[in-house]
Amino acid sequence: MTQISNASILPKFAQLTIQGEDAEKFLQGQLTCDVTKLGLSYQAAAIGNLKGRIEFGIWIKKQAEKQYDVVISADCADALQAHLKKYGAFSKFETSAPTPIYPCVLDNVPTFSHKDDHNTTEDTQAWMQCSIATGNYWIVAATQGEFQPQELRLHQRGGMDYDKGCYLGQEVIARIYFKSAPKAFLHYVQGTGEAPSAGDKLDKIQVVNAMKNDDGFIALVVARPEQLAESDLSILDLPAALQADVARAK
């Protein structure tokens, strides 16, 4: 296997608040999830492009009536803000400037906090480890437009709704879901050597996220099962809900 230079840079995240009379209606036409069902817990979701690939991987919660908090990789925050301004030009809502928010693990669940005491390397590393083990991928600038939501098992995490109506990329995403299935999809693996960077390819296996550990690295990758079988990577178990077939149940 080709060895990649160590990707030890810790991820950083930002929050944008979207609020106003048309906030829910606008977001419903953008996001893969059903915005009307959001609550106070972060829900993984995505904004697709016209090719049906994830342009912005986000976490979103309904903070108050007509107010939504969105968390995104910090290197994508300005692009998301520009996207919201472009597509929401005729909708009544306001978008805040991006502000830092810190990844942490609470009750064994990867989440985010505004508290400065979570702004530590240890918290971020714990979040990365927990996120990779649970399929809680994060999209960075290098992987924008690379993956289809179904490839990343977003539908198995409640981040997609196939009955909600139109949103960006919906036609392509729905066609894949109802008429075919991704041949490559998300896996949790252990590898040797230096940790690859997001978006790197190990032969035909594409890295979503990775971090170094004592035995080499752990990673979330998108690959065909037969490609993994022929590689030097060891497949680890994702949570039970993410071990199901990515294809639509017949």
Q: Could you characterize what this model shows?
A:
InterPro entries: YgfZ/GCV_T_CS (IPR017703), YgfZ/GcvT (IPR045179). One of its GO terms (biological process) is iron-sulfur cluster assembly. The protein is an alpha+beta fold and 250 residues long. The protein has a domain at 13-179: Probable tRNA modification gtpase trme, domain 1 (Gyrase A, domain 2, 2-Layer Sandwich), CATH 3.30.1360. Helices cover 18% and strands 30% of the residues. It is built from five helices and twelve strands. It has helices at 23-28, 77-87, 121-134, 170-179, 225-229; strands at residues 13-19, 43-48, 54-64, 67-73, 94-95, 99-106, 109-113, 185-191, 201-202, 205-213, 216-223, 234-236. Strands 1, 2, 3, 4, 5, 6 and 7 form a seven-stranded antiparallel sheet that branches. Strands 9-10-11-8-12 form a five-stranded antiparallel sheet. The protein is globular. The termini are far apart. Mean pLDDT is 93; it is low at 1-7.
Salient structural properties:
alpha+beta, seven-stranded antiparallel sheet, YgfZ/GcvT, about 250 residues, YgfZ/GCV_T_CS
Write the layout of secondary structure elements.
Blueprint: E1 13-19, H1 23-28, E2 43-48, E3 54-64, E4 67-73, H2 77-87, E5 94-95, E6 99-106, E7 109-113, H3 121-134, H4 170-179, E8 185-191, E9 201-202, E10 205-213, E11 216-223, H5 225-229, E12 234-236
Antiparallel strand pairs: 1-4, 1-5, 1-6, 2-3, 3-4, 6-7, 8-11, 8-12, 9-10, 10-11
